[in-house]
């Protein structure tokens, strides 16, 4: 998947979190085909709410939770 493309999540989306700035959405996915979990990062267009897939991180095991911390910008 190329940066800027609209993307779907991995096999089983389990948790969503928006960063404090409201500019990014994180999606934790359980049980990808390789047996590892993933976390997808989407940018949020603040004027339209449109999501754009930015990146995917593969975790060593299925993630147990998702927590985004910080201060609003």
List the helices and strands and how they pair.
Layout: E1 12-18, E2 24-30, E3 38-44, E4 51-58
Antiparallel strand pairs: 1-2, 2-3, 3-4
Keywords:
0% helix, 73 residues, disordered N terminus, mainly beta
Written account of the structure:
The protein is mostly beta strands and 73 residues long. The chain has a domain at 12-58. Helix content is 0%, strand content 40%. The chain contains no helices and 4 strands. The protein has strands at 12-18, 24-30, 38-44, 51-58. The chain has a 4-stranded antiparallel β-sheet, with no helix packed on it. A hairpin with a 7-residue loop joins β2 (24-30) and β3 (38-44). The protein starts with 11 loop residues before the first strand and ends in a 15-residue tail after the last strand. Residues 1-5 have low confidence and may be disordered.
Brief overview, please?
This protein is 0% helix and 40% strand. It has strands at 12-18, 24-30, 38-44, 51-58.
């Amino acid at each position: 998947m190329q940066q800027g493309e609209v993307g779907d999540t991995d096999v089983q989306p389990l948790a969503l979190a928006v960063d404090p700035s409201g500019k990014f959405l994180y999606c934790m996915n359980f049980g990808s085909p390789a047996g590892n979990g993933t976390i997808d990062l989407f940018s949020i267009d603040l004027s339209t709410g449109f999501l754009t897939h930015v990146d995917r991180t593969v975790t060593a095991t299925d993630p147990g939770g998702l927590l985004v911390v910080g201060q609003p910008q």
